[in-house]
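Please fill in the sequence for the structure shown.

STRUCTURE ENCODING:
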């Protein structure tokens, strides 16, 4: 199965200048806990934005149009279809961004792990709108306060309605 994991601001922004909007330590822990030991799929710009390349203890698939790109420790693919061919459908595979990759994978995704940041941010990339007619909220935690910046945030999980 394929799962998207993403942190989304109130105005749907997810990044700016090829960076995350903010660093919420609890969100990074949540991301690490969920994705460790799994395959993660990302676009080239997201790969380039990572502080640690590749992310340890995960199998990284990077999507690029350039067949000559080669990033150490990553599986390089040139299409969404090829990325899927490299995944085991019996395992949970995580789509970790960015915006262009989320948009293309939404129809191919079963579950969304969303960190809602309850604040607006200036962004240049946004998460696509999704409808509660298509996605069921299966888990939503009480709002927490980010220990570093004081941003209110909450973790939510949605599943696609079949
Ligand atoms: N809030 C969050 O949870 C979160 C998570 C991840 C990323 N982000 C943010 O999202 C932003 C990056 O998103 P982005 O949309 O600009 O970039 P991206 O989706 O990470 O990467 C885009 C690149 O991926 C390749 N690509 C995409 N679709 C492809 C396809 N169908 N076939 C072949 N190659 C394909 C292309 O690489 P080539 O140019 O090499 O062809 C394209 O330029 C950053 O600001 C990042 O911080 C936020």
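FILLED IN BY: designer on duty
SEQUENCE:
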């Amino acid at each position: 199965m394929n799962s998207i994991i993403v942190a989304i601001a109130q105005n749907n922004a997810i990044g700016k200048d090829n960076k995350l909007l903010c660093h919420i330590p609890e969100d990074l822990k949540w991301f690490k806990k969920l994705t460790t030991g799994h395959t993660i799929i990302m676009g080239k710009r997201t790969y380039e934005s990572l502080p640690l390349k590749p992310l340890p203890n995960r199998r990284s698939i990077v999507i690029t149009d350039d067949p000559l790109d080669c990033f150490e420790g990553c599986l390089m693919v040139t299409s969404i279809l090829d990325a899927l061919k490299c995944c085991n459908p019996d395992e949970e595979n995580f789509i970790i961004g960015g915006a262009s990759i989320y948009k293309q994978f939404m129809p191919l995704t079963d579950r969304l792990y969303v960190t809602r940041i309850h604040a607006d941010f200036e962004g240049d990339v946004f998460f696509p709108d999704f409808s509660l007619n298509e996605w069921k909220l299966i888990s939503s935690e009480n709002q927490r306060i980010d220990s570093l910046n004081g941003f209110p945030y909450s973790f939510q999980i949605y599943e696609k309605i079949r």
